[in-house]
Specification:
Layout lengths: L6 H8 L2 H6 L5 E3 L2 E4 L11 E4 L4 E4 L5 E2 L1 H9 L3 H11 L5 H4 L6 H28 L5 H8 L4 H7 L2 E3 L5 H4 L6 H6 L3 E3 L6 E3 L4 E7 L5 E8 L7 E3 L15 H4 L9 E5 L2 H9 L5 E3 L7 H10 L2 E4 L5 H13 L6 E4 L8 H8 L1 H9 L2 E2 H10 L7 H15 L5 H11 L7 H26 L7 H15 L1 H10 L8 H14 L16 H12 L7 H35 L7 H30 L1
Parallel strand pairs: 12-13, 12-14, 14-15
Antiparallel strand pairs: 1-2, 2-3, 3-4, 4-5, 6-9, 7-8, 9-10, 10-11, 15-16
Helix pairs in contact: 3-4, 12-15, 15-16, 17-18, 18-20, 19-20, 21-22, 21-23, 21-25, 22-25, 25-26
Amino acid sequence: MKHNVNLGDIILENVDIVSVISQYVQLKQMGKNHKGLCPFHSEKTPSFIVSEDKQLFHCFGCGAAGNAIQFVMRIENLDFLDAVDALAEQFNIPIEQYKYSKSGNSQENQASRDEKSHMMDVMRASAMYYYKNLAPDSIGFSYLANRGLDRQIIKRFGLGLAQDEWDGLIKSFSGKELSILEQVGLIIKRKDQSGYYDRFRNRIIFPIIDVRGKVIGFGGRVMDDSLPKYLNSPETILFNKSKTLYGLNLAKNHIESWDDTIIVTEGYMDVIALHNAGIENAVATLGTALTKEHGKLLDRYAKTVVICYDSDAAGVKATLRSVEVLKDIKAMVKVLQLGEGLDPDEYIKKYGKTKFLAELSSAKAGVVYSLEALSREYDFSNEEEQVEFIKKAVEIFDDLSDNIKVEYFIRTMSNFPQLNESYIRSVVGNVVKDEVKIYHKKESATTQVKKRQPIDILEERLLALAYTSKSNCQLICAKLPVENFTNDILKAYMTAFVYAYETRDKIEISNFADVLEVDQLLLLEKLMKRAIPSTNEVNEIDEVIYKHKMIGIEQSIKEVRDEREKYLKLLHSSALDNRDEVLNTCNVLTKTEQTLQQTLREMKIKRNH
């Protein structure tokens, strides 16, 4: 048996990405690649490319990219293992033997799989037991009805009731199931070892369901003022609080329709109240602080994460911590604080959906929220405290490694009326200087990038200007033929642009799927993305081509001089027997340099006039 096998590799070796994606996207073959409309954003012109050779996909519209597993993860909102399972089942790939391969014992592996499957069955049966207890005439149903919930929302979340009994759940199972019930934490062994008792008693039950729709844990809430108010089942091989978000199994189907936004709350009832009001993109942590693992999960499902905790002191503290935890995710992090010490459930009941959405639309950027909270700790009438505040603010921003980030920081800080922009700039200049040095040192040590020559930079700029419009491309080619490009990669791109403009007035990167490989397309996309818009394209084309020609001539002069230097050295060799020929070559090279120098002078004179 194989050990430590990568399940992803097994799947990718046995599936064809074109076959996988063709189930969701109508693909058309374009040379070596396939092309279609991107399933991850709305578009009328296809920009979604699939490479059969490299088994990769990439959208040049929204940037989505990856392999077959990553495509299924994104299109179906699944985690890695669920996507692997889905593909394995669809393409009949036997992966069960590898899932528990660390022990190397097939009998133990099978036992582990059987145990986990048995636990899932027990969790589902327990959820059904609690759900059936929540009859319309029960105290639990009355409690939920008084909180504005009807049978429809109760059913959607699978809410239930643990009756006021010590052995209600125990009696619903046979004796042989009790060990499994104990493993999943739903029953607890008595101290005198005489039997078990139910963990949840006289509580509303909230099944915790994963994204595949499987019950993995439970939460229970009292219906009076008893403590603890909330109680969760313990962590098991099925349930990890730090990697689970309550309500994500439902919210994942609505995130896209809410502008790819997830609202993160603190409690079960907050999530249910928002879903009940039609705001179905809400989730909650499970009695634990937001973690890095939660951040990865949120990043996978949304482009914007809105933290919406209680607005009391504890909620503010938790919000600030969550902003810090989420600072490295790709998604934009915002904060919505509702005021009056209210949580989302209370706010919806008091003010309704419309006002909540109005507040949601003005949620603050997480970094702004953190800065505002920090500012309340300082007296801005004191110059020393202003400086200290700015230094602390730099730490919150964390990365001010380039001018764009520095300018954004200064612009954000300028929103504090007590701070003068020029003063901020002077303080930041001193604070950031060392940070930038450290950052660049780290970058140069970890990133091996071939240094671009000045003429490469000019040709990149001409390529970007040619990409902008057909007229630009024609103007560039009239003044600088494509064959005069010195960088072979950029020359190939420019040639492709020229041919593309023969049949269309506007070009997109995806238009070249039939002539370029995926890695070539990705490089082209990168080059175009880093191009800065021009304020006067015609003048800039003239300026860039002038510099290109100047550099070309200067380079030619250098090459002529270097060549002549070689021949001059020969003149001092005692073994030289063709001195006249060498001398003649030196004279020719000298005249060539003089001609080039004259051309250079004429270009400068013409430019100045």
